[in-house]
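# nightly structure sweep
# worker-07 picked up a monomer target from the shared queue
# config: single-sequence mode, recycle default, output format = structure tokens
# input follows
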Amino acid sequence: MSQFFQIHPENPQQRLIDKAVDIINGGGVIVYPTDSSYALGCHIGDKAAMERIRTIRQVDAKHNFTLVCRDLSEIASYAKVANSAYRLIKNHTPGPYTFILKATKEVPKRLQNPKRKTIGLRVPDNPIAQALLGTLGEPLMSSTLTLPGDDMPMTDPYDIRDTLEHSLDLIIDGGYCGIEPTTVVELTDDAPVVVRQGLGSAEGFSE
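# output follows
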């Protein structure tokens, strides 16, 4: 049965953040708030935890996970960022955007797109997520909390607990989260391509 932490959405309690990071480092799967919706997260190097997330969402090996990063410098450790892409990312982070970039060797092969060797990365504008990432010291491997058959992600932490408490190690109640996904921007070529229009404005990405 999962633990349930009520963490202040603007001033996260560090003692609870520390406990959450201990759970992540111990192989746990957590639910945590972002600036777009609630998400599932686990340690970047934990294959078993990643498979548990696949099971919860009932997705296959082709499902793309996102690396949720603390800041732009952390993105640069896991992706090859050209100068033009760097400027665009800097202007739009933190925020509800996922950027598709060529992965570096720091990214486990199982997380990369098998053909294109790309990875999705994002920097959320959410105090709880930022506190988790700052204490963890590395990205969270993450996937939106959308259950099989649903079109929208789950938004209520108590509903999440009722539905998934036996599948998770921790649910963080950070208040209401939205239901709109991030805007996805591919930055692997010379010109940015908006792959999915979501919460973040697409303005500034067109040629």
